[in-house]
Structure prediction request, 225 residues.
Amino acid sequence: EAQVTQNPRYLITVTGKKLTVTCSQNMNHEYMSWYRQDPGLGLRQIYYSMNVEVTDKGDVPEGYKVSRKEKRNFPLILESPSPNQTSLYFCASSNRVGTEAFFGQGTRLTVV
Amino acid sequence: GEDVEQSLFLSVREGDSSVINCTYTDSSSTYLYWYKQEPGAGLQLLTYIFSNMDMKQDQRLTVLLNKKDKHLSLRIADTQTGDSAIYFCAESISNFGNEKLTFGTGTRLTIIP
Prediction:
């Protein structure tokens, strides 16, 4: 079954404690990206990756890092989380322009 | 610049048609999408339309695109309780190799029995 898997689904953490949200896809897609969803703002792109070892900033990259060492995995790293990073995060993958973007189930992060 | 706008709420009686509207500003968008998000779930692609098309129909769903006015709509015929969800309009823009989806704020569709 084609899918994008994120872990964990829910996470509560404290300010400053490093965390990683994992994302894995089994469709051999080249393109992966991270979005955050906030009420009244829709989804905003954080980072994207066009292929292995190729990543770049989206619209709201501050406070986040990513890596793309393998084609299937695209983890999102928060080195020092802050309360304004409390949000719902989605990972997505696709075969580039014009094809369906598959989304993970989301990770609800709360930073206290 | 890129901006996608939708109204936040829509209530429709069961059995009626729902029409969700969206406006966008970037004329270079290649594809326009409608995604559905049910409570606690990720985003599910409902349908999409290429920017050089005017209309696309898929069972109960009809997408209309007015490129001149940069207006996109999603019509759901015979709305059912299972259609209750948040619907996101999104445009796809290819820019220096980045295919970015720019989303609207989402429209929460509520079905009245």
Notes: Chain A touches chain B through 27 residues (CB under 8 Å). Chain A has a mean pLDDT of 93.
